[in-house]
């Protein structure tokens, strides 16, 4: 199979890019692991049990128009498909390996756009491997795809906008949480203060205030949580926390953890794309040209996998990446895209306004990123933080050598749940920069 543009990921960036490319007449193939388009933010927006409901909020409902435009675009959609390889071709372009329904195939693409989105930052605390503990993102997936909410007392803990969004969505669904434990460090307000003017003129201010009020009215909200532990024998039974030096124990059948999201970098890194460590966002991000092209010729990245900025920014980045690809394939028609490009650039600028404030405010605390020795950091292979620190002190040079010594990062998640933690433990122990240490 051949195509002009192969897109990986059917979230807002991937769908927007497909729509624009198809309008210009390009042949487009879009591969996605999910059964339907939407990505995480617009998951099940066309046919889910809550697709016609206001429960998930206006921002979620707004994704239906984009999903419908994608469905009508004529792009070839490959759902339930895993992309396992991207390589440069001697004749130009890229070869992409796909696995669909247990069958592998290769596609020769003139250009490739990765729009793989984000994943949740690891949140390693004592007891986080107990049954009954899961991420807020996983809980939101259950809500969107199956209208499923937790039974029994539930605690939501962590920091970041998604924490409050999920708490508000649960309140609208009639779920009263046992507690919302906010782990945002108090000192972050001073860190964020220089970025306040931009935030005051951003689209996030009013949304944020509304969410905070909604959550405070509906649930028990406890701020300044400095320590957190899941307690149980074979099953979660309670959550222990310390908030402002005050110990708290809350009976719980479910604990939902969240401390922000980071770019999904696995496929890009496996494809040879250069990445750099961003200290402001404590994550690896791809090195991109202004057009969104990576260090691999013909390979572009858009959406939250390029840097966390939300759904509107992802859609704008997808449109701009597609426009850049079209400029190469059909430069004579560049003027016909000027208006749409301008709208996307304005939308992106609006979405990025205020992000620096949010990045500083919701920077996770050190103790929730670099756990104590007894805490399991690699869930798949059951490797504790103390074992990692011991081997670093014995001379382990980086995460890849640590993988050989302990199997950390070799399990089913392939480092998605421990990669950043391992990098930060190396940085803490050696004093080296995470960029030097690597992923």
Describe it for me?
35% of the residues lie in helices and 24% in strands. It is an alpha/beta fold. The strands form six sheets. Strands 1, 2, 3, 4, 5, 6 and 19 form a seven-stranded mixed sheet that branches. Strands 8-15-9-10-11 form a five-stranded parallel sheet. α1 links the parallel β1 and β2. The two termini are 33 Å apart.
| Class of secondary structure makeup | alpha/beta
The total count of helices amounts to 16
Strand content: 15-25%
Radius of gyration: 22 Å
Taking the alpha carbons of the first and last residues, their distance comes to 33 Å
Helical content band: 25-40%
Shape: globular
Count every beta strand, where a strand is a DSSP E run of 2 or more residues: 21
Could you describe the largest sheet, including whether it forms a barrel?
Answer: 7 strands, mixed
Low-confidence runs: none
Mean pLDDT: 95
Q: How are the SSEs placed, and which strands pair?
A:
Layout (H helix, E strand, L loop, with lengths): L1 E7 L3 H12 L4 E4 L26 H4 L1 H9 L4 E3 L2 E8 L5 E7 L2 E12 L3 E3 L12 E3 H11 L7 E6 L1 H12 L6 E4 L5 H5 L3 H5 L3 H15 L2 E2 L2 E8 L3 E8 L2 E6 L2 E6 L1 E3 L2 H5 L4 E4 L4 E4 L12 E3 L9 H19 L8 H15 L2 H7 L14 E3 L4 E2 H9 L5 H8 L12 H12 L3 H4 L2
Parallel strand pairs: 1-2, 1-6, 2-3, 6-19, 8-15, 9-10, 9-15, 10-11
Antiparallel strand pairs: 4-5, 5-6, 7-16, 12-13, 13-14, 17-18, 20-21
Structural key phrases:
439 residues; alpha/beta; 16 helices; 35% helix
Question: How would you summarize this macromolecular structure in one to three sentences?
Answer:
The protein contains 16 helices and 21 strands. It is α/β, with parallel strands linked by helices and 439 residues long. The radius of gyration is 22 Å and the shape is globular.
């Amino acid at each position: 199979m051949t195509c002009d543009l192969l897109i990986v990921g059917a979230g807002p960036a991937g769908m927007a890019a497909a729509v624009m490319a198809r309008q210009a007449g390009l042949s487009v193939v879009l591969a996605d692991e999910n059964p339907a388009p939407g990505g995480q933010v617009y998951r099940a927006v066309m046919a889910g049990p809550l697709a016609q409901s206001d429960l998930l909020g206006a921002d979620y409902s707004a994704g239906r128009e984009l999903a419908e435009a994608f469905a009508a675009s004529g792009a070839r959609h490959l759902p339930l498909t895993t992309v396992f390889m991207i390589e440069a071709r001697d004749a130009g372009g890229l070869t992409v390996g796909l696995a669909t329904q247990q069958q592998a195939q290769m596609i020769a693409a003139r250009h490739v756009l990765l729009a793989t989105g984000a994943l949740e930052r690891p949140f390693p605390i004592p007891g986080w491997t107990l049954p009954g503990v899961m991420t807020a993102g996983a809980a939101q997936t259950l809500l969107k795809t199956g209208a499923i909410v937790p039974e029994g007392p539930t605690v939501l803990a962590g920091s970041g906008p998604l924490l409050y969004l999920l708490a508000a969505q649960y309140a609208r669904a009639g779920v009263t949480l046992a507690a919302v434990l906010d782990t945002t460090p108090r000192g972050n307000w001073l860190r964020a203060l220089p970025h306040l003017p931009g935030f005051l003129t951003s689209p996030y201010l009013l949304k944020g205030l509304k969410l905070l009020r909604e959550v405070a009215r509906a649930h028990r909200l406890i701020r300044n949580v400095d320590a957190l532990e899941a307690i149980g024998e074979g099953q979660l039974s309670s959550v222990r926390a310390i908030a402002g030096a005050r110990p708290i124990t809350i009976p719980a059948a479910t604990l939902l953890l969240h401390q922000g999201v980071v770019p999904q970098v696995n496929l890009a890194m496996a494809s040879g794309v250069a990445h750099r460590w961003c200290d402001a966002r404590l994550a690896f991000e791809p090195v991109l040209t202004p057009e969104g092209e990576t260090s691999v010729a013909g390979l572009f990245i858009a959406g939250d996998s390029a840097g966390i900025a939300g759904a509107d920014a992802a859609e704008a980045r997808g449109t701009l990446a597609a426009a850049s690809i079209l400029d190469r394939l059909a430069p004579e028609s560049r003027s016909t895209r000027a208006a749409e490009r301008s709208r996307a650039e304005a939308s992106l600028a609006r979405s990025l306004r205020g992000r620096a404030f949010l990045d500083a405010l919701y920077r996770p605390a050190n103790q929730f990123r670099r756990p104590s020795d007894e805490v399991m950091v690699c869930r798949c292979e059951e490797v504790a933080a103390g074992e990692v620190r011991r081997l670093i002190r014995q001379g382990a040079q980086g995460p890849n050598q640590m993988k050989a010594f302990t199997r950390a990062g070799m399990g089913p998640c392939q480092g998605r749940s421990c990669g950043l933690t391992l990098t930060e433990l190396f940085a803490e122990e050696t004093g080296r920069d995470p960029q030097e240490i690597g992923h």
